[in-house]
Amino acid sequence: MPYLPATCCPICALPTHDGTTCGQCLQEKLHFDRTVAVFAYAFPINRLVQALKHKEKLMLAHCLAEKLAQRITQHPDHLVAMPHHPKRLRSRGFNQSLELARHLGRHLNIPLLPDACERNRDTPPQAALTRKERNQNVRQAFNCTQNFQGKHVAIIDDVMTSGASLDELAQSLRKAGAIEISAWVIARTLPHNASAGYDPGIACRMSADPVQKLKNDPQQAPEIHL
Ligand SMILES: [Zn+2]
């Protein structure tokens, strides 16, 4: 499995030489304090996340959330899931980040606030956009309906790419009073030159991994066309 290397930027989870803050985060201050990510967004995690997102394989949410829970060392006051716009929620039927957050909340005994944040604009998907376009795309896209005064909040999302959505939601949480914000994600998209830190041997040693089992079981992990 494409686990992230041990030395990553503590803020955005990009691999760095010695685990120090990356150049991008030094240059441009994000509104969240740290990122906890388990995997690089690479095979087979990309397929599993796609299966969760588009095929409603909700059992995958449990397995992936378990992996993330193992990495958590700081317990926030509240969990929130990256919200979908109601239109997208209606067409897809569920929010995969909320499913992940439900499992994490139960597992770690942290209250999940499913309705505390809303997406008030139906922004186009981020995947095909540049970093600058992503920032513009999600600007003021979120609204927090709850007071988070003095609270530490963790935002749950499936994949972090540029971090633009997480940053924008974190900004809304700051406006609502949050003093500490963590981003918890299953996978981090990495630039090509940052992919050298993995240990491919882990894939062999992790043969008993529940996610690996799902991948090997055609009933649980159907062929996904990306
Ligand atoms: Zn960084």
Automatic annotation (TrEMBL):
Pfam families: Pribosyltran. CDD domains: PRTases_typeI. InterPro entries: ComF/GntX_DNA_util-trans (IPR051910), PRTase-like (IPR029057), PRTase_dom (IPR000836). Residues 96-187 form the Phosphoribosyltransferase domain. Belongs to the ComF/GntX family. This is Competence protein F. It comes from Candidatus Nitrotoga fabula.
